[in-house]
Design brief:
By secondary structure, the chain is an alpha+beta fold. The protein contains six helices and ten strands. The strands form three sheets. Strands 2-3-1-8 form a four-stranded mixed sheet. The chain is globular, with a radius of gyration of 17 Å. It starts with 5 loop residues before the first strand and ends with a strand.
């Protein structure tokens, strides 16, 4: 792969078969020593497979995994950590969940959406990716209001570190969002690579607008 200033890698669970514990970096080796059961988890295997595709050119990265599938975003910049999250769509009580993680504006917006599931996962994955950029916790979700007063759609907060944010839906059931520094020149359209049965998949990324009023 070319050394672009941003790289997004997405993998289905089959790549776990290509996991090689001999290629783990020092941090993962130490983590595995403390938690040896991780080596048997498909999530660990697929996400570490993705890490092993990176060259030393990439200084910062963020990982996500679910049901054996995994995603990774990496940047060449040493200053800022990018963020990524992936969620598998399933039926839930989205309105009740929204009360736990969404602002009043977001809850009202969700109640007006025809496709409640899609809208909820868009909010959730974007919020979690933003949290990773800011080194936060899941309990911080209320701090990110993605539906500003007077707006009827999603807008990304103007952070102290300018960012760009994108989302896509894969196989009609995987919701994926990435957030990374605005000064990265690479677009997800030309820096995303798929593995497993996502090899050669066409990822249709949607860019979200940024609002300075958030």
């Amino acid at each position: 792969m070319m050394n672009q200033d941003c790289l997004i890698l997405l993998a289905s669970s089959e790549v776990s078969e290509q996991y090689n514990n001999l290629k783990l970096d020092q941090a993962d080796k130490q983590r595995l020593q403390k938690n040896p059961h991780l080596a048997q988890r498909t999530d660990w295997q697929s996400s570490r497979f993705l890490k092993q595709q990176l060259s030393a050119f990439y200084k910062r990265l963020s990982l996500t995994h679910k049901k054996g599938y995994a995603g990774l975003i990496a940047c060449s910049s040493i200053q800022h950590i990018p963020g990524i999250d992936m969620e598998y769509a399933q039926e839930r009580d989205f309105i009740s969940l929204a009360k736990l993680c969404c602002t009043d504006n977001e809850q009202k917006w969700l109640s007006e959406q025809q496709n409640l599931s899609c809208s909820f996962y868009q909010l959730w994955t974007l919020k979690e990716a933003l949290i990773k950029v800011r080194h936060g916790q899941l309990s911080d979700m209320h701090q990110y209001n993605l539906i500003p007063d007077g707006y009827d759609g999603i807008y990304i907060p103007a952070l102290d570190i300018p960012v760009q944010a994108y989302s896509c839906i894969v196989d009609n059931c995987w919701h994926i969002s990435v957030v990374y520094p605005a000064d990265c020149s690479a677009s997800p359209l030309n820096c995303t690579y798929g593995f497993g049965h996502w090899h050669n998949y066409k990822f249709n990324w949607h860019q979200w607008p940024v609002s300075s009023s958030v």
